[in-house]
Amino acid sequence: MAYDEVLADRIRELVAGGLDVTERKMFGGLAFLVASNMSLAASGQSGFIVHVDPQDSCEHRVMPGDLELAAVAALRRALPDAHVHRDSPDWLKRPGRVECGPRWDFVQSVYRALTQRDLCETMPSRERRQIDAVIEREGEPPRIFEFDESQHFNAHRAVTLRLYPDDVETAFPLERWLSASETSTKKLGTTGGWGKAKPPLFPEPGGRHVQRAFRDALADLLPAVHGWAPTLRVADFEVQEWIHRPQAGASMGNLLEDRLK
After folding, report:
1. Could you read off the pLDDT of 222-253 as tens digits, one per residue?
2. pTM of whole model > 0.70?
3. CB-side exposure of 177: number of CA atoms within 13 Å?
4. What residues contact 224, with CB distance under 8 A and at least 6 apart?
5. Which of 169, 149, 108 shows the shortest CA–CA distance to 236?
6. What is the domain partition of the chain in residue ranges?
7. What is the pLDDT of residues 23-49, one digit of tens each?
8. Of the residues 69, 161, 236, 254, which has the maximum number of CB atoms within 10 A of its CB?
9. Rounded Cα–Cα distance for residues 10 and 62 (Å)
């Protein structure tokens, strides 16, 4: 069985940045070698292999992106007739007044609720984003897929979800997402890593938390403006028990059954 191309692309993104990484096809999969030693691989069974020090092998260590990679791989197995890729639509990369269309005033109100400032009509050049996946199936409009890990559930996200008007269609249980955001214990005071400032739109310490909530809202609000199906979301707490098991594809299919009707 061929390795998962989307999974391989995500691994490439994770290992980019100066490491001496080479790729080698072996055993039906694609291995990533660091300094000639196999470190990561997209396996021929659509799995994700991580080589760890034997002294650490008794402890499960989840690297950044691990759950997301596994979720996208399970999505591909759950929807074998779909073309799943990571090419973000142009209207979501830097959405300003033109891209938001009739949603512009509402998008403005969301940004204002998060920052107490007005949103510029043209997004700054550095304000770009990458989505987790796009699903394309014959006879259906394309659809964004987003895998929401714990950092996506916080008080800022709760603010955006409470503002959604009744005509916003979602392919995820909105009330459950709101509840998870309202009850999250995520510390929003962190200013590095997941919480660092993201100027120019979110320049304050902790700005990444606000940026994430705003971007998630854009991915929910804009698809209908451009003829896309409602954004499909899956949360980490929904899949953690089975995402690394052989039947993950079937389990993902069961999870999505109601959301894709």
Report:
1. 999 999 999 999 999 999 999 988 899 999 99
2. yes
3. 27
4. 168, 169, 230
5. 149
6. 5-61, 84-238
7. 888 777 888 888 777 788 887 655 667
8. 69
9. 15
